[in-house]
């Protein structure tokens, strides 16, 4: 099978990763990234520009290594009698040299960080004893040591960050790889113990956390070591009383950890309400046609807003906690310093310049590492522990083992001829002379068959010994099966039958009777608990829900088999796919992704049949594949393919439809998991349910003059809207920095203009206020005697500290409130915009993309963006303060400061241009990993049946390596940027020291300047730049949501003309020269259609798919804006009426019944405009009264998950009850019986005949018998 993933990583412009041959200095300074950074500044990067992965980073090797160590861990745990731990196995995946290098780098970085305040103290002491030559020598030595410690700190810290990022990536790739390989080992029965969404979450959430595990462990160790060391230094250098400030930080640390736990609990509550809200939004997006036709927009809007309000309650509580985190981030060191100095004064310790600034320097050293970072590390480790536990639980799922006593499956060569061995006369049934000529010419010219390789297939021997045990067959002997423990879950009971070669076995029965479970048992997905299953022969399987994977249409049919154009074309013809292929832009080489999003269900079903036919199997299991296929097309495919090409094979067809009974050799009727009878079609003599031809239909029409059936002979149109999806709201990222317009619209949504201006000024004032307490300490240090400071001076200092804290928390609170208000209002605008959007919008944008705006992007705006945005603002303002403070204290610093400031900005702009593009490539390469994983889960049985596990696993490795390639380049970009920006900060430290020496600045001012400049190393380069980049990424969510809120609505919502009351009164419908197209550039689907439907008439619309049946309904409900002509109901032209009022005058019953979250009564009477007596009368007419009376709460029964627990019959009958209750004179029935069993179908026909006598009924039938009877 030709892989569908982007192989550009294999064909990189750089055939080898420069890191492989990079020297020590190149690795130390990340110079091996220079080439990529230059390319990114010259042009737009493509995936082929990225450096190829190193061998040790490839998913395949990492996965195999983890599999090996995990199996060893399980074996050792059994031997030693202890519990297996996935973490122990994962530790062995990476070489110990990686841990040693990371540990050494962290040790050097921590040592240098602790050394800096010591050197500051020595420098301060030397400056205070200035004038002595010996002290001057030491002064230079300490100053040089301070600069060198800063340099070694950035070297070690950047190396540590790079190393642990790569280690985390390898853990993630290995974990995802073993999860993917595990799903192939689990049968459907095993997978019933875990939800598909949970498996997806393992790779999208749990495994993703492994990226940062080593970084967070490092934070925890760094914080612990620095906290203990700084505590000892303060005790030793200043006094034990000064440890009181450290104690405050320890309590603050406990607060962080405790509040993180509270935040996690709030996150779970938020997630529950988000899930409920998204359940409603999913219902809106998937059922938008029904919602618009039934005018349910505003009830759904109120429901979404109600849930959203409850969701925001917990978001606000979490935001209140996060606002304190952001406040303490920049005020905790000020408060801790105040506490230490206050305790020193209270206990009578004489304060000195040395003691003041040593306390300040030491506490500032651990401001981040021993507070927020340490707490984040502790909580993250707890979260990762839970993630590893969930991954381990999944890996430990038991795999079904089949006993030879209950299940036997052999793949043996059939004695049946392959299709390639057919005679010319037989082949002519499936290939026309034109097909043969065209294929032969294409082969000779090499045109349009690039994948064709002549394949010599050995003819199957027709003289094989007649060994009964090897005859192709499927045999069940008293088989019983269940999906889970307990007799209540038994799905098959005492099944006995045998299917032999050349036989068509039809398994018939109502929904839920066990048809699909029986096929699953044949496939080995549902092992028998009793009895014996024997299956001999190669199996092909067509699932009930068509499965299409991301590749070309041709590859979906070939599915790993060699391409033979004769066989391929014959199968395409037999499955009636040629016309559909001709409509596609690139024919059968057209890429079909997202589970065949660009295809109709009818086309996907026929592609599934074609795939099975091309596999040339011995046994074909068909799980109702013709359900979504048009009746005429289904009859043709059934005759040509199932009963033609595959006539020599075993065919087992599970279906509720009876038109296939006549051709079946064996009929198994199932009820409640058992076979109630087993007869042959000859004995049964069933002839009455075959498809009527048009002639027969007209003959029946003449016998039933009261019903008028009009067949519209409209030319088939494959609508362009289904062929090219615009993906307007795909995960597009902004290519440049945050647009001022986007930022302004975001803030303006949450606040008025005066508030924004005042808040911006207030933010600058607060940042200035944060400097005042330290400047006051500088003033106090200049006093002749600090011991005798008057109380007023200290009270002013205390007031400053308290004021700074209050102002900071006000700033954080106002900011969070504003951003949450923006998120709340933008969500409201988005809901209204989606509900009023044209239906064409939903046809040209995938449901997943639309729903992502309300889940992922709104979640980002609620919880991620406010915190990161505020932190970026605070860090930026602090960086400006840290630059200006030394300049104010010593203007000579400007000589070196201005060039360095310009260099910093130039480096920032230069590097971020490439970093943005690499990040964009990394994000785009992440989607195929999840998409391929999801596709595998959906098509697991098909993949396993066709033995395609290895091919799909190799594809997955490719996808994962492509993402790892982008991820490695992203983290390497950050290392390149971080080291260079840190280096500029080191040069600025040198300039501050040099400036202080040059002007002989006083000791206190010099030390205060250096305290602030040293913080630039962490706060600006390591945090500030990354936070600003994160803001850009998160603002992409705002950008998409703003676009979603500005969708052009349907024009009819702005119309205010109302029809007379009552309307409609009679139910006469008239179409006059109606022409319709789904886009202005597209071809017309309806071409000047005119007809009249008289009051009380039964009016049928028939035609094959694409003929325009649904387009007539769309025109009647004004779902398509580009519609010419005039539609009248009771002599009232609806084109200019208020849109919702015109739709409210028509009732519709759709193919897929739509229910919404709420009570049963709300679903029957959405506007609560009828009495309970009227509702019970309607329920009785729809044969639902006894069922409703059996419910615990009857009419007030809650329909969980929008009625998903109800069967299709109950859901459809509720739709009929709703239509009857509305008492409209015009009722549209759109294939209402296509999803229900025959009993419900008969009830529906009875309702139509007896209860809709006074209404005009327009019907689009699933079967002609629906309108003929």
Describe this entry's structure for a reader.
The strands form six sheets. A six-stranded mixed β-sheet has the order 6-9-10-4-11-12, sandwiched between helices. By secondary structure, it is an alpha/beta fold. It folds into three domains: 56-397 and 737-1046, ABC transporter type 1, transmembrane domain (ABC transporter transmembrane region fold); 471-680, P-loop containing nucleotide triphosphate hydrolases (Rossmann fold), CATH 3.40.50; 1069-1155 and 1206-1266, Rossmann fold (3-Layer(aba) Sandwich). 46% of the residues are buried. Strand 22 (1226-1230), helix 42 (1238-1251) and strand 23 (1256-1260) form a beta-alpha-beta unit. The radius of gyration is 37 Å and the shape is globular. It starts with 17 loop residues before the first helix and ends with a helix. The chain has 43 helices and 23 strands. One of its GO terms (cellular component) is membrane. One of its GO terms (molecular function) is ATP hydrolysis activity. It is found in: Membrane.
Structural class: alpha/beta
State the name of the first-level CATH class of the largest domain: Mainly Alpha
Q: How would a crystallographer describe the biggest sheet?
A: 6 strands, mixed
Strand content: 5-15%
Key terms:
Rossmann fold, ABC transporter transmembrane region fold, nucleotide-binding, 1269 residues, alpha/beta, ATP hydrolysis activity, 9% strand, globular, 23 strands, 3 domains, transport, transmembrane helix, five-stranded parallel β-sheet
